[in-house]
Amino acid sequence: MPNTVSLKDISEKTPLFNREEEHNEKIPILDVQGLKKYYPVKKPFGQIRGEKRSVKAVDNVSFRLYEGETYGLVGESGCGKSTIGRTLLRLIEPTAGKAIYKNKDLFELTGENLREVRQELQMVFQDPYSSLNPRKRIGQTLEEPLTIHSIGTKKERTEIVMEILNKVGMQTDHYYRFPHELSGGQRQRIGLARSLVVNPKIIIADEPVSALDVSIQSQVINLLQELQEDLQLTYLFIAHDISIVRYISDRIGVMYLGNLVEEAPADSLLATPLHPYTQALLSAVPLPNPLVKKERIILKGEIPSPLSPPPGCVFHTRCPSAMNVCKMEAPEKKEMSSNHFVSCHLYR
Ligand code: SF4
């Protein structure tokens, strides 16, 4: 019988993969504190000489990820949720803040330390086609991360890739195919396989099903859930569609214009959404029974520019419940019930 190398073997050989670590669910696996990402604007129209302006893509966002959970980050396009994912992986550099992982600040790591941590934090991108190299066969694409992280021999890498292909529901002959020979759903499975091949602990899934047909979306979501259980993964699931986020998430964070405005366990958020923006998002989710009517909250106006966000509460220009104080003071984050946080002056 030939010697085969499995992900489990690799885990045991490599300290980074050790899943036997003592797990205390009260200790977050990732603790994001005061994350800011500002993009300086060089020559904005109407700029006063000497004035520095910036686009506030993410403004002072804090949240925690606990091992084995799915944290859903939801909000309109441009609210900064994808920027958070990319910043955590250091694909873009943060302006300020910390992201504590294994007692180290991800934003301070360099060189070999950063490379090692990147093995444990992986990303699944929205568009599976553009995230795969069209000139490389699937096998080559999947083996690349293993080569970068010096995992296994050539033969062992091939065996790991075959095992992962099997895990994501693909056939071993897909190893020899090119991306254009696969369907959208299959390509996203390959995107998922590429992130799993180095045996990560945290997957940042950035709109992983938005580009897929509705029928395929549920397959990929179910696959994500199966893999999470099987491989003890922690997900940061980023999406604009709250109906998908609520299906997969244990906890949900709602973002608006670079700010985290509400955060709660999924059940609590769905049963009692507190922030007017969350209420509007949830009112747009269709009910399975067409005979049951619910009031749809239509938000007026466009999302303001992050280059000049409104003073006070950033949502006040569209909020149906806005008060005078909302135009002047930014609301503080308050805990209204167990782990249910909201930033809104309605809850003083
Ligand atoms: Fe609306 Fe004011 Fe609450 Fe902002 S703080 S969401 S404007 S009520």
Question: How would you describe this structure to a colleague?
Answer:
- With 348 residues, the chain is α/β, with parallel strands linked by helices.
- Helix content is 31%, strand content 22%.
- The chain is built from 11 helices and 12 strands.
- The strands form 2 sheets. An 8-stranded mixed beta sheet has the order 6-7-8-3-9-10-12-11, sandwiched between helices. A 4-stranded antiparallel beta sheet has the order 2-1-4-5.
- Strand 9 (251-256) and strand 10 form a beta hairpin.
- Helix 4 (138-148) crosses helix 5 (154-167).
- The protein starts with 6 loop residues before the first helix and ends in a 5-residue tail after the last strand.
- Iron/sulfur cluster binds next to loops.
